[in-house]
Amino acid sequence: MRFIYSKTFLAFASVLFLIVIGLVMQAKGWLQPIEYALLQAPRPVSNVVKSIASPIHTVASTLGSLRGIVRENGVLRNQVAQLQQQQVQFDKYKNDNDILRDELKFKAQSKQQLESCTVLSIDPQELSDAMVLSCGKEQGIQEGQAVISQGYLIAKIAYVGSFTSTAILISNAQSSIDAHLSKNNTEGVVKGSFGSGMVFDLVSQNADVQSGDLVVTAGINPRIPKDILIGQIGSVLSGSNDLFKKMSITSPVRQRSVEFVFVVKQ
Hints:
Order of helices and strands: HHHEEEEEEEEEEEE
Helix content: 25-40%
CATH superfamily of the domain at 114-265: Rod shape-determining protein MreC, domain 1
CATH topology of the domain at 114-265: Thrombin, subunit H
């Protein structure tokens, strides 16, 4: 009987009692709420961990992909630059082709003996009125011959080498070309003026000259054939009391932008 009241027996009996109570409660279903609570207990903790870890993961992933994005962006920029350069070349070839087609068409229709030349250099800053051409004595070029573009006189040959020549634009202030109006042969002189312009000078005050009239070469100079277009009459520059009329001349040809010309050979 002494064993029944010992501490060991009381501990064993207490544990056995709790087990029995637990089995009864499990059988009755009374432990389900407790089980559910125990199962759900880790979920808030998991949610907190996810809410902290997700932004960290996103930032890490973004930082990891930035290097690749920067590299791809550099490749794309290079490709864009190459495509733009190709477009520039294409535009230049197209423009050159259009100019050559028009010039060759003019050459086929012209009754004059023409030598085609490439403009090797010309000063776009207007510091010089000279252009260097890719044709010279070997091609029959001579000093004083006319240089035309798009059918208009733009220069005269001033110096001739074996394979190149130098021409002076007719807009040069020292240039002087005998000319007349195509509609009525009113005579005058086309002179260059400062700023790459041209004037029709030494025209009689009684002459019938209107804006838009065509000015052509007079053919007095044996090296420059008659009736080569020079330009159109613009505005009147002289006064009624001046001895001669003087008018500006406009030309559709941008003399400093031409790349191909013809030299008129006699």
